[in-house]
Design brief:
Elements: H1 14-36, H2 42-57, E1 73-76, H3 82-92, H4 98-101, H5 132-151, E2 163-167, H6 169-173, H7 175-187, E3 192-198, E4 201-202, E5 205-206, H8 215-222, E6 225-230, H9 234-246, E7 252-257, H10 280-289, H11 302-332, H12 334-345, E8 364-365, H13 367-379, E9 385-389, H14 393-396, E10 405-406, E11 415-417, H15 422-435, E12 439-445, H16 449-462, E13 467-471, H17 489-494, E14 500-502, H18 507-519, E15 525-529, E16 534-535, E17 551-554, E18 563-567, H19 571-584, E19 589-593, H20 597-601, H21 605-611, E20 619-622, H22 631-634, E21 639-641, H23 652-658, H24 663-674
Parallel strand pairs: 1-2, 2-3, 3-7, 6-7, 9-11, 9-12, 10-11, 12-13, 13-15, 14-15, 18-19, 18-20, 20-21
Antiparallel strand pairs: 4-5, 8-16, 17-19
Helix pairs in contact: 1-2, 1-3, 2-3, 2-9, 5-7, 5-15, 7-15, 11-12, 13-18, 15-16, 19-24
Length: about 675
């Protein structure tokens, strides 16, 4: 399926037109940044030749249909150089008019300061936090390899594309860059091609002031195929990409020797070109040096636009050929083709939830164990459910026995051994989700979500339905001590907009959380699971329980409680015990389970009033973490029970008792608010 550049009809005056194209890109970049009054012209100016070769000679894409499934993926990990990407998209014929380039960095424009997924046609992922894009690209390449293994046949391939990523020195300095590159090398992702803008310049000055390692040798040690080229020799760049495509068992790093601000007589190869406009006079001098009209802004000659817009006809033809290929696939492999069509549509297989587990009320099971049983039920019914963990598979029970491992020589499995690489794991998960066709999830301990926070935040920003499984969600971790006992992490995650933070109170809420995560694909979920056994609550339909964010577990017989006890996660069990003691003392008690604040806040006012009537001010909230935020549900007369300090090392039961997470404390608090 994948072709070289033989069919791209490069004109005979290729060299002249290619050089002009690169310089036109530079002109668009410096004009847009100058008009905005702020931005990063230097990186795009340095990498224009490399990008022009990639986009005109290699990249398989259809600007008229940015979501064509078998397109090559292009990630600008160095997101500060966003004007490079916007120029490429405009020239290629995406729905990004020149007027939008003139609105760079303006409110509500399609050309924001850093590329934003869903905002700009052709932008594959939101980038800017350095290293995240590289991690996304690793995930995209991994998704391609998994889907190719599952669906391609010896005589017919329906998944066959490359992932290209442009990275900067900053991407490779960040810790996530190390993790992502190490993972890609281990997995031998041969269709991942990384173009390194080696301009040796940062905002603070030359990279030599802080970054002196041998990057090519580092990547060779990771197991990458490494080449070095002059970033302005377009023939050499073309040859390097061809060689990269020929290497099937290693990702490729092409070190592009470039100069930041290329073409600027006074700012080339200086930090001044990194994050500031060149200035009117320097732009005039630069355009003269690049043989561009010095007094024209946003100049694009017809021959350049015509040359680049061939991407429209070429891309349409490539997509048409692929669709015909899929048609042959349907005839030859109807069952696989039916599954593949569901993959393309993002649909779950028929009967995917037929074997989800249930439990009898009165028994006790830990939410993490319940999650493991859910995954066992799902793994055989959803072949594109892809799991993983940062070295804690047994502890967080993310790998059911019926999931095969994915390794460098076998992508037919469903489970990824991410190793101790939480940063890269989270970013790769986002990349897999962005790629499409898979339902990815991965796990670690909740306390280590701090390592993943940047990727979780970007997932929420993109509204990507990535599933982060975070177990050991309270101080009941016990003997591991305060370094491993989450305190502030629950609330810290709730602070991220558009992230669903779900703490199931029991096994049934855990089932419902997985059902919600797999069917409501509009944002990411952080699934927080307790390590210890908790009692099974009365079972409700998902839309009446977890799907509402909070619900009444048990109520006063007349529906008019004296006090409302609100618990989240495993602390609902403590609340239920407190209710029994309070009722023995003659009080009417309502117990509310609140697994997800975000879903509860989305309910209409009528429902929220039914659960938490404003008139009932005697309330106690209970969660084994910081109490910050719970005042919204406790109210001014209520009490929030939590842990506003770091934990202690000891047996789980002793630690919980010492820190006040007890039935007795809840009863005491309830009596206090009742007396007010």
């Amino acid at each position: 399926m994948q072709s070289n550049n033989d069919d791209l009809a490069i004109p005979s005056d290729q060299n002249k037109l290619d050089v002009l194209s690169a310089n036109v890109i530079r002109g668009l970049v410096i004009d847009a940044v100058q008009k905005a009054g702020v931005g990063h012209p230097g990186m795009p100016m340095g990498m224009a030749n490399v990008a022009a070769v990639l986009w005109t000679r290699f990249l398989r894409h259809n600007p008229a249909n940015p979501n064509w499934f078998n397109r090559d993926r292009f990630v600008l990990s160095a997101g500060h150089g966003s004007m490079l990407l916007y120029s490429l998209l405009y020239l290629s014929g995406y729905d990004l008019p020149l007027e939008q380039l003139k609105l760079h960095r303006q409110l509500h424009s399609l050309t924001p300061g850093h590329p934003e997924y869903r905002r700009t046609p052709g932008v594959e992922t939101t980038t800017g936090p350095l290293g995240q894009g590289l991690g996304n690209a690793v995930g995209m390449a991994l998704a391609e390899a998994i889907l190719a293994a599952k669906f391609n046949q010896p005589d017919l391939s329906v998944v066959d594309h490359y992932t290209y990523v442009i990275v900067s020195d900053g991407d490779l300095e960040e810790g996530i860059g190390h993790e992502a590159a190490s993972l890609a090398g281990h997995l031998q992702l041969g269709k991942l091609i990384c173009l390194y803008d080696d301009n040796q310049m940062t905002i603070d000055g030359p990279t030599s002031i802080s970054f002196t390692e041998n990057v090519p040798q580092r990547f060779e040690a990771y197991g990458w195929h490494v080449q070095t080229v002059d970033g302005y020799d377009m023939t050499a760049i073309e040859t390097a990409i061809q060689m990269a495509q020929a290497v099937s068992n290693q990702p490729t790093m092409i070190v592009c020797k470039t100069r930041i601000g290329y073409g600027s007589p006074n700012k080339e190869n200086t930090s001044d070109a990194h994050g500031s406009p060149l200035g009117a006079e320097e732009i005039r001098l630069t355009k003269q040096a690049l043989n561009l009209p010095p007094d024209e802004s946003f100049w694009v000659p017809d021959e350049v636009l015509s040359y680049w817009r061939t991407a429209l006809t070429r891309g349409a033809q490539q997509e048409k050929e692929w669709e015909a290929h899929v048609g042959h696939y349907k005839d030859a492999y109807p069952n696989l083709a039916n599954m593949f069509q569901k993959v393309l549509a993002g649909e779950l297989p028929d009967g995917w939830d037929a074997e989800l587990p249930t439990w009898e009320q009165g028994s006790a099971v830990s939410p993490r164990a319940a999650s493991g049983k859910v995954l066992t039920a799902l793994a055989s019914r959803i072949p594109t459910l892809i799991g993983g963990s940062a070295d804690l598979s047994i502890s967080n029970q993310t790998r059911p026995a019926n999931m095969r491992d994915i390794q460098d020589d076998d992508f037919h499995g469903q489970y990824i051994r991410f190793g101790i690489r939480e940063h890269a794991m989270a970013a790769a998960l986002n990349g897999m989700t962005l790629h499409g066709g898979l339902f990815p999830y991965a796990g670690t301990y909740l306390v280590f979500s701090d390592y993943m926070r940047a990727a979780i935040r970007v997932a929420a920003l993109m509204k990507m339905p990535t599933i982060f499984v975070l177990t050991h969600d309270t101080v009941s971790v016990g003997e591991d001590g305060p370094t491993h006992q989450p305190i502030e992490q629950i609330m810290a995650l709730r602070c991220i907009p558009d992230l669903l933070v779900v703490r199931p109170a029991d096994a049934h809420e855990t089932v419902d959380a997985w059902r919600y995560a797999l069917t409501r694909r509009d944002r990411p979920m952080a699934l927080l699971l307790a390590r210890h056994n908790v009692p099974i609550l009365p079972k409700l339909e998902p839309e009446m329980g977890l799907g509402r964010g909070a619900y009444i577990v048990v109520d006063a017989e007349d529906g008019k409680p004296d006090v409302i006890l609100i618990g989240a996660g495993s602390e609902v069990a403590i609340v239920m015990e407190a209710r029994e003691q309070l009722e023995k003392q003659g009080y009417k008690v309502r117990v509310v389970s609140m697994p997800c604040w975000e879903l509860f806040e989305e309910q209409d006012l009528v429902y929220r009033e039914q659960v938490l009537p404003e008139a009932i001010t005697a309330r106690v909230t209970v969660e084994a973490g910081v109490t910050l935020g719970w005042e919204r549900y406790a109210g001014v007369s209520g009490i929030s029970i939590g842990i506003n300090r770091f934990g202690e090392s000891g047996k789980a039961s002793d630690v919980l008792a010492y820190l006040g997470m007890t039935t007795e404390r809840v009863v005491e608090a309830a009596l206090t608010v009742l007396a007010r």
